[in-house]
Amino acid sequence: MKRIEAILVVGAGWVGRQIAMTMAAGGCRVFLMDEKSEVITQALAWMNGQAGRLFAAGSWTEKQRDNVRESIMGVNPKNLSVLEPDLVIECVPEQASLKKRVLKSLGEKCGKDVIITSNSSYFVPSMFQGSIKNPERFLHFHFHVPVFLTNAVDVMPWSGTKPEIVQRLIELSERIGQKPLVCRQEHPGYVFNWLLQALLKAAMELAQQGVADPAEIDQRWKDLTGMKRGPFWIMDQIGLDVIHQVLQNGRFTQPIAAEVLIEFLEPLVASGKLGQKTGQGFFAYTDQMFDWEEGSLG
To answer: Which domains does the chain have, with CATH numbers?
Structure first.
């Protein structure tokens, strides 16, 4: 299986630069492309600064810092035809029409053996595969911010993606210190983002209706979960423009009916598997040791 060594990141914005930085720190050769040269310049300076801070804080090794400073090259879209990446990661804004246009161009200009991926946070790959030449090499490869500190990445193929392409992304993920989760079925938001969007929507609903303000909502969430950050802080970290776009896209996704979820739970409830109080729910609790007995609720 051929290793992925050279990577082209298309889009030098908030997420694209973090992906480029993480790939370089993991030993890959990275090209960072953006239509605006000033954005590339800003991104390179930002990445160098962040790499230095991560090394000073003890989070990164000297080698990781130096890799970022030496292994990332800013490139102009006009030079795409002369590049020879093994993998392309599209990181343009979360707009379906824009992504289709960019992915179509990448499919036409990159050789048929180049893996093409999208970092889309909400769309599914079957939405875009029809726009791509040789779509069997296409799938989604989604990272979580801050990419250089988290260690989780989503791999979502569509039904026509070649299995060996998935395996190559798994190998790359593990090599750069990321834990890949391969989605068995297409689903908007993958796993974590789909769970998170429910929390963020609920938090915004409470604030919009005047039940409590963002600071109060975040504090109550932290008080009762033991987590360090609340939903409004998380939204600020992601970027409110991204949240706004995801909400707009989400209008076209129908939530699953409560009746379907009740049917999903029915076999467990009917068999008396009610959770920790009965020793069995989704998981087994054979020693009846609960979280609070271990001194942790987090």
So the answer is: 6-182 (3.40.50.720), 192-250 (1.10.1040.10), 258-294 (no CATH)
Say if residues 43 and 12 touch (Cβ distance below 8 Å): yes
pLDDT tens track for 66-100:
999 999 999 988 878 778 899 999 999 989 999 99
**What does residue 116 show for φ and ψ, rounded to 5 degrees?**
-115, 130
CB 21 within 8 A of CB 12: no
pLDDT at residue number 64: 97
Q: So what's the pLDDT on residue 91?
A: 97
DSSP string over the chain: -PPP-EEEEE--SHHHHHHHHHHHHTT-EEEEE-S-HHHHHHHHHHHHHHHHHHHHTTSS-HHHHHHHHHSEEEE-GGGGGG---SEEEE---S-HHHHHHHHHHHHHHS-TTSEEEE--SS--GGGTGGGSSSGGGEEEEEE-SSTTT--EEEEEE-TTS-HHHHHHHHHHHHHTT-EEEE-SS--TTTTHHHHHHHHHHHHHHHHHTTSS-HHHHHHHHHHHH--S--HHHHHHHH-HHHHHHHHHHHTTSPPPPHHHHHHHHHHHHHTT--BGGGTBSSSB-TT---GGGGT---
The model's pLDDT over 230-282, given as tens digits with 9 standing for 90+, comes to 999 999 988 888 888 888 776 656 667 778 778 878 888 889 988 877 888 88
CA distance linking residue 30 with residue 6, whole number of Å:
6
pLDDT category at 49 given cuts 50, 70, 90 is very high
Angle at which helices 240-250 and 192-208 cross, to 10°: 100
